[in-house]
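This is your field. Pick holes in the following sequence-structure pair:
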Amino acid sequence: MKRTIVLILEIAVLVVVLRSSFVQFWLADIQDNLSDWMTELATMAEREALSDLQKRIRPFIANLSDYQREYIMDITSSRSKLEHFQRYYCIEKDKNPYVYGATLIYLCSEIRKVQFD
C-alpha cells in the first residue's frame, strides 16, 4: 500500500515539475538545438557538393563580369536554385541574360556532374 502511495506521489511530482514553465522552456531549447543539429547533418552532403561545384567552376568564371560571377555563385549556393537553373536553361534551353554560349554549356556540364547524396 505504501509503495502505491509513494508511486502516485512521485508521478504527481513529476507531472508538476514537467509542466513548470522553466522545464518547458528548457525542453523547448533542447528540442530547438537538436532540430538545428539534425538539419545541419541532413544538409552537409548537399553543402559539400555545392562547395565542390563552386571550386571547380571558379577558375572558369574568373574572366566574366562581376554581375555574371555573382549570378553564377548565387545559383550554385543552393540545391533548389541549381535545379531551377538546370531545368530552365540546360534542359529546356530557355534564354538566360547572364549566362550564354560556351559559359552556359560548361556550366550545364558541370551541373550534371553534381551528385547529391
